[in-house]
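Slide 14.
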Amino acid sequence: MELQERLDDVRLRIANAERQDGRSSESVQLVAVSKTFDALAIRPAIEAGQRIFGENRVQESQAKWPELKSETVDIELRLIGPLQSNKVTEAVALFDVIETIDREKIARALAAEIKRQARSVRLYVQVNTGLEPQKAGIEPGDTAAFVDFCRDELGLTIEGLMCIPPADENPGPHFALLAKLAKASGLGKLSMGMSGDYETAIAFGATSVRVGSAIFGAR
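Slide 15: predicted structure.
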């Protein structure tokens, strides 16, 4: 199956899930996860009309995306991997959305850098819904206070919440928890769901799903 066919299949599944769950058409954004793929592999997706892409690493993204973004001006690039404090300057310059704010140090660094660069970067807080020690994200019980800190003390505009459920658990309860936390903080955006569970995520209110292997194939 060619990339165009795989992309069309994912789009159709998203549309079917929206309809099945009583959601309006195009209420869910598809984030094509292009991490580890080079510009040559990404260009066919852009040619097929895909405009929102997700990357895990700042340094890898710097090697391919400035040129790709210069070729197609309406691309939206999202950082969906952990952000290190020494990469904040580069991340703010390159990404349109950063989905992985998960600690005070990063939030403060982002606030300072966004002000310095005068860039409007949309932000999400990552929540570790499974309380996994090896995984990034703020604990669910600390989410509301952290969102308030980002908004009230740092003046950051937090758009929504993001999560990556444990690989060996039913993702449904994790998606439900994220939706509950977002509602409690008055946030309307939910980044949740990947290649194996994005249709389930849509049923729980996802506004964006992050799909990589189902579009680009195995890494």
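Speaker note: The chain has a mean pLDDT of 96.
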